[in-house]
Amino acid sequence: xxxxxxxxxxxxxxxxxxxxxxxxxxxxxxxxxxxxxxxxxxxxxxxxxxxxxxxxxxxxxxxxxxxxxxxxxxxxxxxxxxxxxxxxxxxxxxxxxxxxxxxxxxxxxxxxxxxxxxxxxxxxxxxxxxxxxxxxxxxxxxxxxxxxxxxxxxxxxxxxxxxxxxxxxxxxxxxxxxxxxxxxxxxxxxxxxxxxxxxxxxxxxxxxxxxxxxxxxxxxxxxxxxxxxxxxxxxxxxxxxxxxxxxxxxxxxxxxxxxxxxxxxxxxxxxxxxxxxxxxxxxxxxxxxxxxxxxxxxxxxxxxxxxxxxxxxxxxxxxxxxxxxxxxxxxxxxxxxxxxxxxxxxxxxxxxxxxxxxxxxxxxxxxxxxxxxxxxxxxxxxxxxxxx
Length: 388
Ligand SMILES: Cc1ncc(COP(=O)(O)O)c(C=O)c1O
What we know:
The chain has two domains: about 170 residues, Alanine racemase (TIM Barrel, Alpha-Beta Barrel); about 130 residues, Lyase, Ornithine Decarboxylase, Chain A, domain 1 (Beta Barrel). About 30% of the residues lie in helices and about 25% in strands. It is built from eleven helices and 17 strands. Strands 1, 10, 11, 12, 13, 14, 15, 16 and 17 form a nine-stranded mixed beta sheet that branches. Strand 16 and strand 17 form a beta hairpin. Helix 4 packs across helix 5 and helix 7 packs parallel to helix 8. It starts with a helix and ends in a 9-residue tail after the last helix. The relative contact order is 0.16. The site of pyridoxal-5'-phosphate (PLP) has 14 residues, from strand 9 and helix 9. The site of pyridoxal-5'-phosphate has 14 residues, from strand 9 and helix 9.
């Protein structure tokens, strides 16, 4: 019996499995591709459950909300590994962070208001901090290049050290030309900074490396990463690579069981005990693409075409349409692969008050129940109802 079958036997469905051995070999691969010059920053939003297991493998964690911060703190991840990012930084959480016994490694600045907030708080608490200023890519995140240059020129705080720039413009970037353009943009910015007689130490760069989730999509990752590294090598200062999806996706599996079947004039339907509230790859694919999956128990059988639906009350709850696969029976379990990033956190998990799946971490021969089933009926319950 393999690891997945063991988890299935012990914990049933719906369940996420995160395989820490796969995670570790994935990070080793990325490190090997980029070389020791490039440190890795793990974007915690991709998957909080695996964060602790990356402690020895990544240099930093990118944390974007009070919730992510409290999870990392509870996991005993050192503040010296934390980069506090996020478009909304509230005063209360910033004060809590500043008063940490061990200093937070760095804070990002996403707006001038964030700069002024941290300026005031560091003065108040006489606390030295390190900053990365986020350059916008034309949206609500970060600040404009001109504002950034002005901020660097006028920055005189004895409490805040500006170490560098943060840049992230989006995810699933598979075009080397896009990366090349971004690196050129960053080099131009470095030139402008230098012209003003200012020097910065580093760029934290969210590359948005892609994951190919669906069958039939061809992508030569090895070659692509070699090209990406060549682009990065043009940057003359330290670069750290902020990554979520590319680190986390491959270690995850989502197990969901066929709980009902029917056939009507529109086709054969298999109803699963999970659904689109648990399974998120990237964007809206309208279930037209076939993800990587296997079906347990393994069985030689004839093939049929099915519509795979979840158990939500919405006609949109299609996991896959027109999937040609072996004949299904009640109790068969679909094991969807590459679900280690975002699936558990981005889904519309509260819809229909269905339970949240279990989360099981597997490593070597060990299974750890990282989260038991959670009933969302408690979360969706209005506990201030007035009884008549
Ligand atoms: C600032 C920032 N950095 C890094 C990431 C991680 O992106 P990815 O999962 O594409 O690596 C995100 C994702 O939203 C982000 O907002």
